[in-house]
């Protein structure tokens, strides 16, 4: 099966503005979702998506069909940019300890769904990066295990192990939500 983005990417490489808009419309929601779930910050996710598209424009003219699917390459670029940002976060050294946010739901946050979504997002952020990446790719980005494993550069068995450990950690972290 050929790359469904190949013709569109060729038009992007030729400078077709309609093709650029079509590619952004097709890929932006998934890139934002991927980066948002990996980073836990919408503004950073937008920056990652923008940088990913800049790299795609630069690559479009010289894209070699058949070496890899464009969508797989685009996801890899976005994941690498997310990892760069996550590494920079760990490297920040300060003299003062950070302020601790109050995680308790306030009176204006009465909706249980919002609280549940927030808890799931926090639990996802607490996972080790590789487990979070596996869960995001398979469950949120809806990639098959084979596609996700190839994207992560691991075997399908290793991916399934990451998924299993990640799901188990999420079950433990969110155990008190069952039955709410």
Can you describe this structure?
By secondary structure, the chain is mainly alpha-helical. The protein folds into two domains: 1-92, RNA polymerase sigma factor, region 2, helix turn helix motif (Rna Polymerase Sigma Factor, Chain: A), CATH 1.10.1740; 111-180, Arc Repressor Mutant, subunit A (Orthogonal Bundle), CATH 1.10.10.10. Helices cover 69% and strands 0% of the residues. It is built from eight helices and no strands. It has helices at 6-13, 17-39, 42-60, 70-90, 112-126, 129-140, 145-152, 156-173. Helix 2 (17-39) packs across helix 6 (129-140). The termini are far apart.
List keywords for this structure.
2 domains; 69% helix; 180 residues; Arc Repressor Mutant, subunit A; 8 helices
Question: Secondary-structure blueprint of this entry?
Answer:
Layout: H1 6-13, H2 17-39, H3 42-60, H4 70-90, H5 112-126, H6 129-140, H7 145-152, H8 156-173
Number of domains: 2
CATH homologous superfamily identity of the largest domain: RNA polymerase sigma factor, region 2, helix turn helix motif
CATH class of the largest domain: Mainly Alpha
Shape: globular
Give the helix tally: 8
Secondary structural class: mainly alpha
Query: Which percent bin holds the helix content?
Result: 55-70%
How confident overall, as mean pLDDT? 83
Can you summarize the main beta sheet?
A: none
Would you list the SSEs in sequence order as H and E? HHHHHHHH
CATH topology assignment of the largest domain:
Rna Polymerase Sigma Factor, Chain: A
Number of separate strands:
0
Q: What is the CA-CA span between the terminal residues?
A: 45 Å
